[in-house]
Amino acid sequence: NELYAVVGHPVSHSKSPRIHSLFASQTGEPVEYIAIQAPLDGFAETVRHFFEGGGKGLNVTVPFKEQAWALAQSRTARAEKAGAANTLYQNSQGQLVADNTDGQGLVQDLITNHSVQLKGARILVLGAGGAVRGVLGPLLAQQPASLTIANRTVAKAEALATLFADEAGATTLGACGFEAPDQPFDVIINGTSASLQGDLPPLCANVIAAGTVVYDMMYSLQTTTFNQWALDNGATRVFDGVGMLVEQAAESFRVWRGVRPETVPVIETLRSD
Ligand code: ATR
């Protein structure tokens, strides 16, 4: 078997080993996939050691995605703009390549698994940290009518809007604080880490209409704090990040193995685990 792993700190909660072992059995690919906890000051050393030992590919999770990006000698276009990498491998010249499959995972989950129309949609994205930066390029590539980035620290939302202006095309790309938007959106994506502290972004409930699709990028067994708020305010189509998690994994598997696994059965298995 060929060896793959997810590197993080902490990493014991990661679903990636489970997801990739389901992909391996489904596709028959000779993949063994483990979790590695790197010391907080030892990410680069852990990566070097893994590839020197014959490892084939890594996923990278919190808090190392930016370090993975910086460490790589080569980056895919989508990783370059994301400023962070969740996927590493070596090319035929032995260079470390960084990719980022998070945004593709989100878009794939919305379009394919939830039949959400992104082209022409009015999209509200909450948050302006690394998680949001990773998904803006793939969202803009779907040509929404507008994409509004709302954040607690407005200057960070503005900086992201400036950074992605060259990928906006005909999309109206804007930035604001949480309180500003007061019209319904077609799609609202929560990319803040506020729920981790049990906090809610102070949004006006008018951003939700009956048809609004609400997506919390956080993966949770229970309804997330944000999604519960949306349901309480009339949303009917509310999703969490489990599909994104499986889709980004499938895209990494495809990058490494050239085979894209079926994701729906894996999403169903995770939900019933
Ligand atoms: P990540 O990698 O998860 O994106 P990050 O880069 O630290 O982590 O970004 C966290 C995001 O969640 C930021 O947009 C942050 O807002 P600020 O830019 O104002 O810090 C947002 N966030 C974190 N805690 C929050 C809270 N309690 N309420 C609202 N937004 C919060």
Automatic annotation (TrEMBL):
<comment type="function">
    <text>Involved in the biosynthesis of the chorismate, which leads to the biosynthesis of aromatic amino acids. Catalyzes the reversible NADPH linked reduction of 3-dehydroshikimate (DHSA) to yield shikimate (SA).</text>
</comment>
<feature type="active site" description="Proton acceptor">
    <location>
        <position position="65"/>
    </location>
</feature>
<comment type="pathway">
    <text>Metabolic intermediate biosynthesis; chorismate biosynthesis; chorismate from D-erythrose 4-phosphate and phosphoenolpyruvate: step 4/7.</text>
</comment>
<feature type="domain" description="Shikimate dehydrogenase substrate binding N-terminal">
    <location>
        <begin position="6"/>
        <end position="88"/>
    </location>
</feature>
<keyword id="KW-0560">Oxidoreductase</keyword>
<feature type="binding site">
    <location>
        <position position="86"/>
    </location>
    <ligand>
        <name>shikimate</name>
    </ligand>
</feature>
<feature type="binding site">
    <location>
        <position position="219"/>
    </location>
    <ligand>
        <name>shikimate</name>
    </ligand>
</feature>
<feature type="binding site">
    <location>
        <position position="102"/>
    </location>
    <ligand>
        <name>shikimate</name>
    </ligand>
</feature>
<dbReference type="InterPro" id="IPR041121">
    <property type="entry name" value="SDH_C"/>
</dbReference>
<feature type="binding site">
    <location>
        <begin position="14"/>
        <end position="16"/>
    </location>
    <ligand>
        <name>shikimate</name>
    </ligand>
</feature>
<dbReference type="InterPro" id="IPR013708">
    <property type="entry name" value="Shikimate_DH-bd_N"/>
</dbReference>
<feature type="binding site">
    <location>
        <position position="248"/>
    </location>
    <ligand>
        <name>shikimate</name>
    </ligand>
</feature>
<feature type="binding site">
    <location>
        <position position="217"/>
    </location>
    <ligand>
        <name>NADP(+)</name>
    </ligand>
</feature>
<feature type="binding site">
    <location>
        <position position="241"/>
    </location>
    <ligand>
        <name>NADP(+)</name>
    </ligand>
</feature>
<keyword id="KW-0028">Amino-acid biosynthesis</keyword>
<dbReference type="InterPro" id="IPR036291">
    <property type="entry name" value="NAD(P)-bd_dom_sf"/>
</dbReference>
<dbReference type="InterPro" id="IPR046346">
    <property type="entry name" value="Aminoacid_DH-like_N_sf"/>
</dbReference>
<dbReference type="Pfam" id="PF18317">
    <property type="entry name" value="SDH_C"/>
</dbReference>
<dbReference type="InterPro" id="IPR011342">
    <property type="entry name" value="Shikimate_DH"/>
</dbReference>
<feature type="binding site">
    <location>
        <position position="61"/>
    </location>
    <ligand>
        <name>shikimate</name>
    </ligand>
</feature>
<keyword id="KW-0057">Aromatic amino acid biosynthesis</keyword>
<dbReference type="Pfam" id="PF08501">
    <property type="entry name" value="Shikimate_dh_N"/>
</dbReference>
<feature type="domain" description="SDH C-terminal">
    <location>
        <begin position="241"/>
        <end position="271"/>
    </location>
</feature>
<feature type="domain" description="Quinate/shikimate 5-dehydrogenase/glutamyl-tRNA reductase">
    <location>
        <begin position="116"/>
        <end position="194"/>
    </location>
</feature>
<feature type="binding site">
    <location>
        <begin position="151"/>
        <end position="156"/>
    </location>
    <ligand>
        <name>NADP(+)</name>
    </ligand>
</feature>
<comment type="similarity">
    <text>Belongs to the shikimate dehydrogenase family.</text>
</comment>
<dbReference type="InterPro" id="IPR022893">
    <property type="entry name" value="Shikimate_DH_fam"/>
</dbReference>
<protein>
    <recommendedName>
        <fullName>Shikimate dehydrogenase (NADP(+))</fullName>
        <ecNumber>1.1.1.25</ecNumber>
    </recommendedName>
</protein>
<feature type="binding site">
    <location>
        <begin position="127"/>
        <end position="131"/>
    </location>
    <ligand>
        <name>NADP(+)</name>
    </ligand>
</feature>
<comment type="subunit">
    <text>Homodimer.</text>
</comment>
<dbReference type="InterPro" id="IPR006151">
    <property type="entry name" value="Shikm_DH/Glu-tRNA_Rdtase"/>
</dbReference>
<keyword id="KW-0521">NADP</keyword>
<dbReference type="Pfam" id="PF01488">
    <property type="entry name" value="Shikimate_DH"/>
</dbReference>
<dbReference type="GO" id="GO:0004764">
    <property type="term" value="F:shikimate 3-dehydrogenase (NADP+) activity"/>
</dbReference>
